[in-house]
Amino acid sequence: MTTTSQTSQRHFVPATTEDLAHQILGMVAQHRMVTTQQLYAVLLPGRRREHISRALSRLRKSALVDFVVLPASSGTRAWYLTEEGAALTRHLPQMADRPSYPVTSTSAASLRSAHTLTVVRAHAAFATTARRRGDEHGPWDWTPEVAHNVGDGERVIADALMYYTHHADNGARVKYRAFVEVDRATMSSERLASKLIDYARFHHYEPQPVAGRRQRTDLLGGPAWLRWYPAFPRILFILTGAGAVALSHRIDDLRAMVREHPTVASLGRAVPVAAAVLEDIETLGVDAPVWHCLRSDGGQQVPWSDL
């Protein structure tokens, strides 16, 4: 005779989704720091906010996360992992390609909060648009601080690598990848534009074999980026932190770099390069005609899928 416990064991199927607390831990680990509102926007839109608050409270009681209150923010909390939380999440699948230096103290969280949380704002904008449209872009389709060699011992480090699947009106699924640069107008416009030179170097970079060393898999021919991507990711600049005129000037300087630098111009002919204002993609949607195509001299703005 089969017992109830034997029957339940035989029919047990592991869950295919993580519970909310695990999702929160994974998202905090991935971004290093997120606000309560950002967690809600990406993980639980349309549901009660209390679910996020209760899960955070349990995680804090377990000494896995802690928070800082952001200045001049009406009490907004930015959450980060404790040392115990960082150790627990180190082997999560979404952390496989992440640098192993999480924010684990109040002082470190305070120093990194402005830029880190602005990058998460951009992620939340894409997640919100994807959900509204029925596209595919979830919490783990955004990897912060992705680095690649460009030769001479140097690297290009993107603020984020984004994966996004667009569902077209004709039923087709179009996969996009993008290197995302989030600019808060804290560096000079010229220095921002020079980031395009690094991407152009990566686009052309081909590792050369060294005599006497074992050949690596990325030395099998062609540019190095083919080791990771079937097509070179588009490059998206998302700007904020200044007035409309100043941001327009920064976009003009990005466009001038694409036009005037020969290697960047070559990149621009092969890869979509665009810029948009963060507040525009938050209020109008990522799919709105708010993107400036940087390889074009005109002032026309288009949806990012039309670049």
Query: Rounded to an integer, what's the Rg over CA atoms?
Result: 22 Å
The side-by-side strand order for the widest beta sheet comes to 4-5-6-7-8-9-10
Helix share bin = 40-55%
Shape: globular
- The oligomeric state of the chains shown is single chain
Q: Can you write the helix and strand succession as a string?
A: HHEHHEEHHEEEHEHHEHEE
**Strand-pairing-aware structural class:** alpha+beta
Q: How many β-strands, per DSSP?
A: 10
State which percent range the strand residues make up. Answer: 15-25%
**Average of the residue pLDDT scores:** 86
Question: Which key terms come to mind for this protein?
Answer:
307 residues, alpha+beta, 3-stranded antiparallel sheet, 10 helices, 40% helix
Describe the structure.
The protein is of the alpha+beta class. It has 10 helices and 10 strands. The strands form 2 sheets. A 7-stranded mixed sheet has the order 4-5-6-7-8-9-10, with helices on both faces. α7 links the parallel β6 and β7. α2 packs across α4 and α7 runs parallel beside α8. The radius of gyration is 22 Å and the shape is globular. The model has no long low-confidence stretch (mean pLDDT 86).
List the helices and strands and how they pair.
Blueprint: H1 4-10, H2 20-31, E1 34-35, H3 36-43, H4 50-61, E2 65-69, E3 77-81, H5 83-89, H6 106-133, E4 142-151, E5 154-167, E6 173-183, H7 189-204, E7 234-239, H8 244-260, H9 262-270, E8 273-277, H10 278-284, E9 291-293, E10 301-302
Parallel strand pairs: 6-7, 7-8
Antiparallel strand pairs: 1-3, 2-3, 4-5, 5-6, 8-9, 9-10
Helix pairs in contact: 2-4, 7-8, 7-9, 8-9
